[in-house]
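Morning!

This is the sequence you dropped in the shared folder:
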Amino acid sequence: MKNVIKIILIATLTVVKATFAISQCLPPPPIIESITVVPNTNGNVTLRWHGNPDDTCTTTGYEIYKHNYVTNQFDFLVLVSAGTTSYTEPNAGANIRPQIYRMTTKAGPAGNEHSENHHSVFLNHVLHYDPCEFTATVTWTPYKTSYRDRFEIRSTDKKFNDSVKYQIVGYIAPSASPFDPLNALALSPVVSDTIINFKMIVNQNYLFCVKTYLPNGNVSYSNVREGIIEGSSIPAAPLYIKLDSLVSFDNRNHLHFEIENSTQMTKFQIERCENIDSAFKAIHTFSDKNTTTYDDNTCDVNKKYFYRVTAFNNISHCVETPAIISDTLNSIILNTKYTNQNITVSWSDFIRDSVYYLYRNGLFWLLLDITQFTDMDVQNDFNSNVYDFCYKIAAIDRNTNFTSISREYCLSLNKPVTMPNAIDPTSSFTNNMETHRRRNQFAPIVGGKETDYEYHMIIFNRWNSVIFETTKPMDVPLSNEHFWTGASAKGNVLPEDTYLYYVKIIFKNSNQVFEQKGTVTLIYQ
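The structure's back. Tokens below.
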């Protein structure tokens, strides 16, 4: 009987111990992913978290605590069920001051360990505006974590906090408009500090906030600010300047642009450089905002230039600074080369993402992503007595239609040289309509308009002996010394046969070179 009682007591104690152990399971706190202020509310705050992967207890929910600025303690806020991963506190007051939260994992009646404290970002209401720089200065309290019951910064917190980045985002909108974070544009670069300057246009209403990039990949937003800078003494910068086209001519580059008309500024500048990585320099200053064109007569049309238009803040008490700068356009330099009876056209690329149109003598080609093209229609034009080939390139931005057009480059060619294939030394017939050559004269027939060229011709017999050679300049009219009439080097009549020739012609104006070897037959009729 005693043994039975002993077994019952041991079993009872084991159950009690197991029940006590379960009640004493202390789960680690959840991991807070982010806290963010909800726009267009009374400072509502949304918390997002996930359960700790080291949690082996039976989780029944999560407790959220909030810092009380009066007592400097954390007050219990709400218990949410297990499986919940977000909570939004209404009227949290994050539009008045930063709010601080922490959480615990609930697994029985025992007290549990708190997570790190997460501080929301608060964008201060003071807005400093510099009319000389057209910039607003804003400050904010940072997003940070601190250690549980105390506001201490541990090494892990410091590593997290030092990795947080900030950016001012927003847009111009009517007063009292709701703020849409999905449409907010970057108004500043991403920074690590909690103070920044960003450009603002006078008399425009801005909605903006701090967008915080957390090291865990999440994003948090601060409270939203509304800001407008008013003042008749501050000249408004133009909303935009569009430099939309650049057309090159033989003696100038022609720019067309548009300055947004609401501006009150009175100083504008045309700026130019030869390398996009070098500094732009002013080449023309003007005051009329209605100006739309400028001709650069000081440029070298064989060089590539980059242009832009700048509006200046020229308030008397300010250091003169650029207020707004147009897009940059560059001139297109085109080159032509005649080789292998084709013309290769190449050009410098346009600074923008472009398509190219190549124009020539009434023809045009649409070209994508290339800066070189070979025109193989040249020979067809020769047959139509066309020897002048004039090209120009139009580069057009794929998105904005901004355009740059090169000046026209013309190349004057000579029709390919032709060689007779037979002569009759006894003939006196002259073809007066085409070549003005007698049938007993063997020499190149040069087409086209160019007559200034160097000439070298050698005639060989079948044993490779030279029987005729001339290097006389090609004067007009040609003399008999330029032709082979079927005689030997000593002036003797040669028999009917096939002879070899070599000819080379260099056209001085176009640097074309014609060089050929072939045969000619003596035929007596």
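Headline: The longest helix spans residues 2-23.

More detail when I'm at my desk.
O.
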